[in-house]
Amino acid sequence: MHQPSPPSGPQPAGAPDPRDPLLDAVEEITARSWTATSGGGEVTAVVGGDQRLRTVDVLRPDLPAGLLGARIAEAVNAALRLAREETVRAMGELPRIGPELRRLAGGHGA
């Protein structure tokens, strides 16, 4: 994620933090994690708000390859769906975003 350059020169005592609170909020949202399971807990996937897979845990590696692959895909897709929905919801609640972006963040694209 883009990090703003720190201000040059010393900051006076009591000066406000130059970092944008909206950027902080977006970073906090994308740092969250969501978890989903499949096969009654045989596979667990964790996905971040940045839509990246963080971990996959397999409790039954002895499953046939096709079944194991299907369970992994099911858990990952469920975690991605949850992360996407919750991230979009949270972004839509942020202040200072325009009505068009708020509408798109609410899942009501053009």
Automatic annotation (TrEMBL):
Record-linked Pfam families: YbaB_DNA_bd
Signal peptide, first to last residue: none
Pro residues bias spans: 1-15
Organism whose genome encodes this protein: Auraticoccus cholistanensis
Molecular function in Gene Ontology: DNA binding
Region (Disordered): 1-21
Stored InterPro entries: YbaB-like_sf, YbaB/EbfC
Source superkingdom: Bacteria
Protein name: YbaB/EbfC family DNA-binding protein
